[in-house]
Amino acid sequence: MAGGTLSFHPDDRYNAFLRTIPEVAYGEGRLSGVPVAIKDNISTAGIETTCASRILSGYVPPYDATVVSLLRREGAAIVGKTNMDEFGMGSTTENSAFGPTKNPHDPGRVPGGSSGGSAAAVAAGLVPLALGTDTGGSIRCPAAFCGIVGLKPTYGRVSRYGLVAYANSLEQIGPMAASVSQVNLLMSVIAGYDHRDSTSLDAPYSHTPDSDIRGTRIGVPEEFFGEGVDPRVASVIWDAISLLERKGAEIITCRFPSMPYALAAYYVTCMSEASSNLARYDGVRYGPPPDVKKPWHEAFQERRREGFGLEVRRRIMIGTFALSSGYYGKYYAKAQAARKNVRKDFRHLFADVDVIAGPTMPTVAFRLGEKSDPLSMYLSDILTVPANLAGVPALSVPCGKVEGLPVGLQVMGRWMEDERVVDVAYAYEQGVKA
Asked: What tens digit of pLDDT does each residue of 78-117 get?
């Protein structure tokens, strides 16, 4: 394998990385020698992978996730693992067991989450490319807060093999970078069929972004500008939509009736799946071994209490309750019915429009420690979770600032039309540069 060695010694003042690799060998390919950061819930052979949780301290995977193998095949230099909310559970990267990541635009503010380390690493110029994961907005939220581009692909278009599971039916690995063209390149490397992932689709990605969006119908749901959306953010978003209209797109206001139920459906679903997935961390199969001198159930409880952070424990308990006998029908089954309505609304909308546009986040990045109430934190995901419930592609592209802090324009597309989403974002990006 021809290539070389890259020295990587970043000035990580933002706590974007949990661990770095000072000397990285790389091969030839489309990404030859390009530094790429990997979120810490994606398996990397020989490199500790903790999901920013103490319960996985010291765990070194014996294999690469499929996306990492694909990056190495194209010559990428895997330079480190990035900080995140523990097991992906959060929207700020404050839930990490190893301290919060800071926003490069204002170190007193959050970078978003849960892929905050990846977003901050790109925004700070430490790496040009990074991988994140998106369960309910965890690529798009930090992309918006840090002023970079992040794509949540169509569910199944990128292999999840080697991703440490949080909520299987919702999460996707996706690219993060400073520009749409870089995200497009990274997507072309990591997308494609993988027989080791039962949810994988045979849908490789090979696309050249096109800024000609004349005739593209862009739907703008009224609900995306409802209660909780900062009017200053809304103004920036409408300016961005107006630019797209000047580029030849047709703007169509529309309704998204299931929006009031999407957030509740998402959280019941993801917490229930988290309860099931994280049951394996018992100190026997995964996690540090418990004190065997104690009764098993006491050792099990103690190990999980010490190993999991507060937010992870909260979500496990809520999910276990939602799945318990007598409550399954009241919570989980109803959440799945609401999820079907979200999918139905997307189908109806996409019969009349080609993409949907609106804010990525209802506000700009808030201050570290500002959102101490879990409910207010969950509400910040209201605009991103519908795409995960439906499995459709969604991208955040920087579109302006409010008081010096970035705002992200979110573009959602039909299932398997990631390319069209990229084109609309690229058209906006090129329109700003013109």
From this structure: 999 999 999 999 999 999 999 999 999 999 999 999 999 9
Residue 208, exposed/middle/buried by CB under 10 A (0-12, 13-18, 19+)?
Answer: exposed
Active site residue 276: no
How many beta carbons lie within 10 A of that of residue 4, not counting itself? 13
Query: Is residue 1, in this structure, part of any structural domain at all?
Result: no
* Beta carbons of 155 and 126 less than 8 angstroms apart: no
Catalytic residue among 91, 114, 272, 396: 114
Give the tens place of pLDDT for each residue, 156-177.
Answer: 999 999 999 999 999 999 999 9
Beta bridge partners of 221: 254
2 within domain boundaries: no
145 within domain boundaries:
yes
421 in any annotated domain: yes
Distance between CA atoms of 52 and 116, rounded to whole angstroms?
A: 12
Q: Provide the CATH number for the domain around residue 244.
A: 3.90.1300.10
For 93, the domain range is: 9-434
Rounded to whole angstroms, the Cα distance separating 83 from 116 reads 7
Q: Which of 53, 91, 138, 200 is catalytic?
A: 138
Cβ neighbors of 2 (< 8 A, separation 6 or more) are 27, 28
39 as an active site residue: the answer is yes
Q: How many domains does the chain have?
A: 1
CA angle 156, 161, 164 (to 5 degrees): 110
pTM: predicted TM-score of the whole model, two decimal places = 0.97
Residue 344: active-site member: no
